[in-house]
Structures are given as C-alpha cells and as structure tokens.
Amino acid sequence: MKSRIHPVSRPVVFRDRAAGTAFLTRSTADSDRRVTWEDGRSYPVIDVETSSASHPFYTGGRQVLDTAGRIERFHRRYGTEAPAAR
C-alpha cells in the first residue's frame, strides 16, 4: 500500500435522528460537533436521516406503491390509450 495517499480513518459516532439510535464506527468523515460516548471519550458525531434502525427495508415496514394509478396518469398525460384488460 502506498503511504500518504489514503484518507485518515478515525472513530466517529453516526446518530440516526429518526430512530433515536447511534453507533460508533470508523470513518474518514469528520465533524466539528462532538459527543461523549458510553466509554467516556469524546468523538465527532454525524447526524444521518436514515440508517438500518429506521429504513423500511430493515425494519420490515412496507411502502405501498400505487402502480395502477401511475400507469393511468401516464396514459392520461401522454394521450395513449390503456391496453384492454383480458
């Protein structure tokens, strides 16, 4: 590995505001804000909108897609006739 071409990796706390959880990991990201972790040390903290604690794929939540409505809206917008149902 070449020296001095890789970014510095350091411990960072990522905090998911939506789920109210935080986790400590290593990252090259840095922040001016700091938080005291469970071990009593101070680490940079980065707030994220979504993590595995709040993402519907990991939590089992489902997002309902109205595909039939989208197709009908497409046909109305572009003037094409919807195919007949069999």
UniProtKB/TrEMBL annotation:
Gene3D superfamilies: Ribosomal protein L31. Pfam families: Ribosomal_L31. The keyword Membrane does not apply. The lineage of its organism: Bacteria, Bacillati, Actinomycetota, Actinomycetes, Kitasatosporales. This is Large ribosomal subunit protein bL31B. Transmembrane segments: none annotated. Part of the 50S ribosomal subunit. Belongs to the bacterial ribosomal protein bL31 family. Type B subfamily. SUPFAM superfamilies: L28p-like. One of its GO terms (cellular component) is ribosome. Keywords: Ribonucleoprotein, Ribosomal protein. HAMAP family: Ribosomal_bL31_2 (MF_00502). The gene is rpmE2.
